[in-house]
Amino acid sequence: MRPRHPIPVPEPPVEELTPAPPDPAESAREAGLARLFEQHYASMLRLAVLLGADDPENVVAEAYYQIYRKWRRLRDTEAAEAYLRSTVCNLTRMRIRHLQVARKHVENPPEETVVSAESAALLRDDQRVLIDALQQLPARQREALVLRHWLGLKEGEIAAAMGISSGSVKTHTARGLAALTQAMEARR
Amino acid sequence: MNHTDPDRTERELTEALAALAQGVRAAPDAYRTARGEWLRRERRRRLVLAVLIAVVFALATLIGLWVLNQAPSEPGVIFSGLGTGPGLPGHGPGA
Questions:
Q1: Considering only CA atoms, which of A124, A131, A127 is closest in space to residue A145?
Q2: Are A154 and A133 in contact (CB under 8 A)?
Q3: pLDDT value at position A5?
Q4: Which chain B residue has the Cα nearest residue A188?
Q5: Lowest mean pLDDT: which of A21-30, A80-89, A145-154, A169-178?
Q6: Which chain B residues have a beta carbon less than 8 Å from that of A38?
């Protein structure tokens, strides 16, 4: 009997236990959000701080969650940025209003330290006075001034972000600026 | 009042906002944290939605079964089962 030479048979490829392929729309959303996060997270965080949010990280995270849910209805990245900006403004205003209401029901309300001491430490005295005066302004005036003087937005863009008319933006900006000028004059 | 005061305030405000913004730094793992939170909330939202749908479906089924159970069990007028009514063949006016 002839000795049998075993012919090497290639082993069948072992299928790895990989999870099911993700939904392409879901992958696109994840990638788009990651890109949006990388591009705008820092500026949105700064916007929330300048608007006086006491927990800017949470405000911005909430804004990104809302855009995550409404991703399919977004037109483009430009629209996403404007939507984020508007959402951060609204959420910050709501948060401040909530804190103001909560403070009314507390016997010994804590001092209003909206700008963190760490950030404020970098400011000169006159700048700190100006920022304090800014934080004392009504929310709409503060928003209009920050969007105009920090982000450098045009009136139409500010109006879109705040959900008001251009005329109202002019009014809020002028009143806010007058109040700040008065505060600075009183200090000088 | 000096007419340049608002201009000066505007300039100072721009500088102060820039200085304050410069001191704000994003946490390095902000994306990972935020993404985990989105996914967790989305999962919870879907779970709550599924539970709500299940509850509504179960309630509708139970109400339907109860209504059917309330139907009278005695033989009714319409379905007498005798087959001698006037609408049956052989009982009409032309018969």
A1: A131
A2: no
A3: 52
A4: B5
A5: A21-30
A6: 31
Question: What band does B1 get if pLDDT is binned at 50, 70 and 90?
Answer: very low
Q: Where are the domains of chain B?
A: 30-63
pLDDT of residue A73: 82
pLDDT in tens, A151-180: 999 999 999 989 999 999 999 999 999 999
Contact B31 A34 (CB under 8 A): yes
Question: Does A146 contact chain B (CB < 8 Å)?
Answer: yes
Query: What pLDDT sits at residue B85?
Result: 55
A177 contacts B21? CB cut-off 8 A: no
Q: Given an 8 Å threshold on Cβ–Cβ distance, is B16 in contact with A65? A: no
| DSSP track, chain A | -PPP-PPPPPPPPPPP-PPPPPPHHHHHHHHHHHHHHHHHHHHHHHHHHHHT-SSHHHHHHHHHHHHHHTGGG---HHHHHHHHHHHHHHHHHHHHHHHHHHHHTSSSPPP---S-HHHHTTS-HHHHHHHHHHHHS-HHHHHHHHHHHTS---HHHHHHHHTS-HHHHHHHHHHHHHHHHHHHHHH-
Helix (H) or strand (E) segment spanning residue B19: helix B5-22
Q: Tally C-beta pairs within 8 A across A and B.
A: 94
Chain B residues within an 8 Å CB radius of A49: 20-21, 24
